[in-house]
Design a protein that fits this description.
Length: 147
Amino acid sequence: MLMRFDPFREIDRLSQNLWNGGGSTRPLAGLPIDAYRVGEELRIDLDVPGVDPSSVELTVEKNVLTITAERPRTWAEGTEVLVNERPQGRFTRQLFLGDNLDTEAVSAASEHGVLTISIPVAERAKARRVEIAGVGATPEMVEATAS
């Protein structure tokens, strides 16, 4: 379904700790996710509060789904900022998908600050029944009984 190993995750985590002084409680990519299977599809929920759905970009290349979103700064220039904990700017998250998903049929919807991406399981990956031929049967006989 979804590949759990991300070779760059630890490097990202290390660099984030270095740039933020090690005390940051912000999520790794600014876009925390939940991934789960419902019936014959994979669903991915991303928290995107304050993000205009029209600024979200989804791209699929081979088996990599890339989600890019932008959360603009909310205060005017010249404002004295006392606390700045909410992440802002451009965020990107890449997910490595398994070959058993139909990446041609990806769909997405946004509601209440949650982006839900749905990816159906490919037909070739779905369970199917296989006929078992008896002793002495030829492949042509099995094909004729299946029709």
